[in-house]
Amino acid sequence: MTNTGIKTFSSWQLTALVLLRVAIGWNFLYEGLAKLTDPDWTAMGFLMDSKWIFSGIFQAMAANQSVLAVVDFLNIWGLILIGLGLILGVFTRVAAISGVVLLAFYFLSHPPMAGLRYAIPSEGNYLIVNKTLIQLIAVWTLYLLPTGRIIGIDRFIFGRSGNE
Predict the structure, then answer these.
(1) Which of 29, 63, 113, 144 is 20 to 30 A from 21 (CA-CA)?
(2) How far apart, in whole angstroms, are the C-alpha atoms of residue 40 and residue 67?
(3) 109-158: pLDDT as tens digits
(4) Could you tell me the residue range of the domain that residue 88 belongs to?
(5) What is the 3-state composition of the chain as percent helix, strand, coil, each rounded to the nearest 5?
(6) Which residues pair with residue 127 across a beta bridge?
(7) 100, 101, 130: which is closest to 113 by C-alpha?
(8) Considering its fold, how many domains does the chain have in total?
């Protein structure tokens, strides 16, 4: 760390972190836009398919139309805003921690545990660690290493040593 409070990275490290931030941001943004532009999309099927210890909570969310409408709205706009934040490097730490929370909900709703079968097909065979958990850990890493203050709009809002 420098005396300004910002970690110093080699150009390769910084490039890799910014590419990771932008790629994950694109994934969030695209998922949100795809849901926004699909008039039939809802989280109901995903929530009703939940298994494991939190399934009752997720299924109750899907069963209540008012709650489901809020969940759908927050899911769509959360994905879009998290994606934009990560791509642009604006409120990067807020976007990253929001992404961690959202991904944690996805993971807890559909954990890759032995014996659990889901109606929604998965791309592979997982045990405990799946791509949702890996993306969660990557976004948490972006939270810990706020590159938006080096390359991003955060630099202009907060400066290199500012706090969000």
Answers:
(1) 113
(2) 17
(3) 988 876 667 667 667 677 889 899 999 999 999 999 989 999 999 999 98
(4) 11-158
(5) 65, 0, 35
(6) 129
(7) 130
(8) 1
